[in-house]
Amino acid sequence: MSDTQTPHPAHIAIVMDGNGRWASQRFLPRLAGHKQGVDALMRIVQACGSRNISTLTVFAFSSENWNRPTEEVSGLMDLLVGSLGRELDRLKKEGVRLRFIGTRAGLTEKVSARLLQAELETASNRALTLNVCFNYGGRWDIVQAANALRERGEPITEQSLDAALALSPSSDPDLFIRTGGEYRISNFLLWQAAYAELFFSPRLWPDFTEQDLDEAIAEFQKRERRFGKTSEQLS
Ligand code: IPE
Ligand code: IPE
Ligand code: MG
Fold first, then answer.
1. What's the CA dihedral at 131, 136, 138, 140 to 10 degrees?
2. CA 55 vs CA 10, 77, 118, 147: distances in Å
3. CA angle 114, 101, 131 (to 5 degrees)
4. Which ligand is closest in space to the CA of residue 184?
5. What is the pLDDT of residue 209?
6. Ligand 3 is a single-atom ion; what residues have CB below 5 A from it?
7. Which one, 64, 124, 135, 150, has the greatest CB density within 10 A?
8. Cβ neighbours of residue 140 closer than 8 Å, sequence gap 6 or more
9. What integer pLDDT is reported at residue 7 of this predicted model?
């Protein structure tokens, strides 16, 4: 590997969107799309593991997704617990550290306990950190961080707020991917995406493959990240 090679993104964030449309196109219930979405996630986790990516952060359930039909919401809760039951051993073997980012408020005791257990069982894994944003919203996160600092009597600075966010100590994402063809952030990582490179894929999430991931990474490697500087300053 040459020194001049464009760096790989160390941290990739993904809005896994398009499960419902994937199912509708096949005249299947929306939940069938969410189930396929879990398989897609497992593929991408494995792909990240073999591509030197240290952190993958995915959006699985937003603060606003509570507004969906009750049946879909409870189906998603069951799918989370069921998927953990099915996939946890594989994730452990692959050295994945699981973290669930979001509020436990509104989750049942059973779901909360399962999330905590999975976090504890994978806490010492180091191959890949998988942050699953579940019951998460970027606005919620900024507010909870500000409140935590106020309660501790700490001044609010960029550094202190950053450290109090739920995603901490993960770094900011380098590459922010949204599948499903929409061009919006939908309340994901509002603070941390400040300088992420954005990549929008028309692919519905259940169809997203390793090749699509490579395409996003290749696009990332063509970008010039200036962080406010001029192009000349970087060379
Ligand atoms: C994303 O897929 C998964 C969740 C929000 C839980 P959607 O369910 O939003 O799929 P579309 O956008 O309706 O196709
Ligand atoms: C964002 O997708 C949330 C997740 C992928 C979990 P949505 O489907 O909820 O976003 P909107 O409603 O189209 O903005
Ligand atoms: Mg959607």
1. -130
2. 6, 24, 17, 27
3. 90
4. 2
5. 98
6. 17
7. 135
8. 63, 102, 103
9. 85
Would residue 67 show up in a list of annotated catalytic residues for this protein?
Answer: no
Spans in the chain with pLDDT lower than 50: 1-4
How high is the mean pLDDT of the chain?
96
Check if 17 has its Cβ closer than 6 Å to any atom of ligand 1.
Answer: yes
Which residue is catalytic, options 52, 65, 67, 131?
A: 65
CA 194 – ligand 3 centroid, Å: 22
CATH of 11-136+170-221 given 3.40.640.10, 3.30.420.40, 3.40.50.970, 3.40.1180.10: 3.40.1180.10
Instruction: Please tell me the predicted confidence (pLDDT) of residue 6.
Output: 72
Question: Which ligand is nearest to the Cα of residue 177, counting in written order?
Answer: 2
Query: If we measure between CA atoms, which residue out of 40, 45, 35, 32 comes closest to residue 16?
Result: 40
The phi-psi region of residue 227 (left if phi > 0; otherwise alpha if psi is between -120 and 50; otherwise beta) is left
Q: Which amino acid is at 26?
A: R
pLDDT of residue 1: 41
Is 65 annotated as catalytic?
A: yes
What was the pLDDT predicted at 5? 59
Residue 22 corresponds to which tokens in the numbers above? 């994937």
Written as six digits, the tokens of 211 are 């090749």
